[in-house]
């Protein structure tokens, strides 16, 4: 994994936080990290349920 990260230093992360509103909907956050260590949020979305079809 260390060799792979040296070749492709960018990183994509998807995470969810549950119960963020009165409807208890999960909030998904898509974050990228550049090779220089800086990160930035590139997307956020709420979903009604956590099925694969709904998330994609």
TrEMBL record:
Residues 1-55 form the ZSWIM1/3 RNaseH-like domain. Pfam families: ZSWIM1-3_RNaseH-like. InterPro entries: ZSWIM1-3_RNaseH-like. It comes from the Eukaryota. This is ZSWIM1/3 RNaseH-like domain-containing protein.
């Amino acid at each position: 994994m260390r060799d792979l990260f040296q070749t492709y230093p960018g990183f994509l992360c998807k995470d969810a936080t549950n119960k963020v509103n009165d409807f208890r909907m999960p909030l998904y956050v898509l974050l990228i990290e550049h090779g220089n260590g800086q990160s930035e949020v590139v997307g956020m979305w709420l979903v009604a349920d956590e099925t694969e079809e709904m998330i994609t």
